[in-house]
Specification:
The protein has 21 helices and 14 strands. 42% of the residues lie in helices and 12% in strands. Among the domains are: 132 residues, Metallo-beta-lactamase, Chain A (4-Layer Sandwich); 68 residues, Alkyl sulfatase, dimerisation domain (Serine Threonine Protein Phosphatase 5, Tetratricopeptide repeat, Alpha Horseshoe); 89 residues, SCP2 sterol-binding domain (Nonspecific Lipid-transfer Protein, Chain A), CATH 3.30.1050.10. 39% of the residues are buried. The chain is α/β, with parallel strands linked by helices.
Length: 520
């Protein structure tokens, strides 16, 4: 963020910040908010007071938290592999991250909007210029919006329009997107602003100029996502399962051969499977799929019936020499899934993954193949410096979402040992909750206080987080006047022991999960 501001000011001069527009709930579109503060363009108080508009789509905070905090630990680990963070740049390593050359690093913040767009076609005046907004939830992101500046006939489609095929399901992990809805939104925009638009600009790829070019670009992208949806449902109704559809289905040539529909970022096979799962779930109707073992247990059984690891490796060598790298990986995964110590299997599987990666048009598939090969070569425990759960992000959570985060982090075994509890919590100046620990599950009701609580706690949000993460003792907060307690204070001290908030995110993704990463 800081570098982009520096580049702007070098070419356009220093100008006052009039507003910030956050298009959607993905971290690369809001995480750099602190760069604005560091550049001196605004202070946090400018946004919290509403002096400078901070505009975002409805449900932005909830969806940003859901994606980047609730599942952030494993998502960040997978994202590091997907974007090739652990790879050297070059012909045998990372070439690109598709939507950008590399994934931006640095701390991630969570801005809290002071203006939410809740209605389609809502107009907001920013420094004398009208911005007309259209909401596009559950397409490229769970909370997203695009806008049109009629004064300049300029359209910004956020990440709903790109010079590539996007993800219906991202391999880092997230909710699957709705291809049918995505196409519908593009059609709505064409109908609303298509006669006027002269330029489309977006956050990841280059602008398109001239009405004819913009409309053809939008229509061809619309056709891409509509044909993905149509193809999957048509094949499914014939009886094809998700794997068969991904292997056999084709899109119309004018759609798939368009340069800005190519699978540089989103992979067609992955998108077809994701659309099947979104509409029909993971199950394809074959009851055999209900009885499958996990990878490690299945692998042991396959290796045993094939005559042992030596015979499996020999068969994998033959497959590799025939150029069938997919089957090589499939064979060897049966060993690797339960025995990370067979270096011959590890290295051969790494060789096959690298060959798959070198042949990929898709940047994310390439990065994942090569990153998993790297894990196999070094024996696991690949370092990870990527995280979306920064103290700044967690500290910025609204009270309701902070309580949800803490509930998710409860260790059920510890909670069951503690028994059932009933607690009233007041977060100073912000919210109050009735908390109930019951059957090892922490539930909450906002704006509610139990008539007969076992204990009460009044505390600030930041001090509550410090207390639950073990950074400060309750007695110290009470003696310092930062917390008030009522009832049985020992209940509150015990409650803090049930939260599992220090999960490592260096987990293996190919080799067996490390012992220190397993739930005890």
């Amino acid at each position: 963020m800081a570098k982009s501001i520096e580049l702007y000011e070098k070419n356009r001069g220093k100008r006052p910040l009039k507003a910030v527009i956050i298009s959607h709930s993905h971290a690369d579109h809001f995480g750099g908010i602190d760069g604005i503060f560091k550049a001196g363009l605004a202070t946090p108080e400018d946004f919290s007071s509403g002096r400078i508009p901070l505009i975002a789509p409805e449900h932005f905070v909830e969806e940003a938290v859901s994606e980047n905090v609730m599942a952030g630990n494993v998502m960040a680990r997978r994202a590091g592999y997907q974007y090739g963070n652990i790879l050297e740049s070059g012909p045998k390593g990372k070439v690109t991250a598709a939507l950008g050359v590399v994934l931006a690093d640095g701390a991630s913040g969570l801005p809290i909007p002071n203006k939410l767009i809740k209605k389609n076609w809502e107009t907001v005046d920013i420094d004398g210029v009208n911005f007309e907004f259209f909401l596009t939830p559950h397409a490229e992101a769970p909370a997203e919006m695009v806008f049109f500046i009629r004064k300049w006939k300029a359209l910004s489609m956020a990440e709903d329009l790109n010079h590539l095929q996007h993800n219906i399901y991202t391999l880092r992990g997230a909710k699957s997107r709705d291809a049918n809805l995505w196409a519908h939104y593009l059609g709505e925009v064409i109908a609303r602003w298509g006669d006027e638009v002269e330029v489309n600009f977006g956050p990841h790829t280059w602008p398109v100029w001239d009405n004819k070019n913009v409309i053809e670009y939008m229509k061809t992208q619309r056709d891409l996502y509509q044909s993905i949806y149509n193809t999957v449902l048509r094949y499914a109704n014939y009886g094809y399962g998700p794997d068969e559809i991904a292997e056999e289905a084709k899109l119309p040539d004018p759609v798939s051969n368009s340069w800005y529909n190519r699978p540089y970022y989103g992979h067609l096979k992955n998108n077809l499977k994701a659309t099947y799962i979104l509409n029909l779930g993971w199950f394809d109707g074959n009851a055999a799929k209900l009885a499958t073992y996990p990878d490690d247990a299945r692998g042991k059984r396959y290796v045993e019936v094939m005559g042992g690891e030596r015979k499996v490796v020999d068969a994998a060598f033959k497959s590799f020499n025939l150029g069938d790298y997919r089957f090589t990986v499939d064979l060897l995964n049966n060993i690797v899934a339960y025995n990370g110590g067979n270096t011959e299997a590890n290295y051969l599987m790494a060789d096959a993954l690298e060959q798959l990666g070198y042949q990929e048009e898709n940047a994310l598939y390439r990065n994942l193949y090569l990153s998993c090969a790297y894990e196999l070569r070094i024996g696991g425990n690949v370092p990870n410096d990527l995280s979306t759960i920064s103290p700044e992000v967690v500290g910025a959570l609204p009270p309701e979402l902070l309580i949800s985060y803490l509930s998710m982090a409860v260790d059920p075994k510890k909670a069951l040992a503690l028994g059932n509890l009933n607690i009233n919590l007041v977060i100073k100046g912000e919210a109050k909750f009735g908390l109930e620990l019951h059957n090892g599950v922490l539930n909450s009701v906002s704006d509610y206080q139990s008539k007969n609580p076992m204990a009460t706690l009044e505390i600030s949000k930041s001090d509550l987080l410090s207390l639950m993460t073990g950074k400060v003792e309750l007695d110290k907060l009470v003696s310092g006047g930062k917390a008030k307690i009522g009832g049985d204070g020992e209940v509150l001290k015990k409650l803090r022991t049930i939260f599992d908030l220090n999960i490592k995110n260096n987990m293996n993704l190919v080799l067996p999960l490390q012992a220190e990463n397993r739930i005890k």
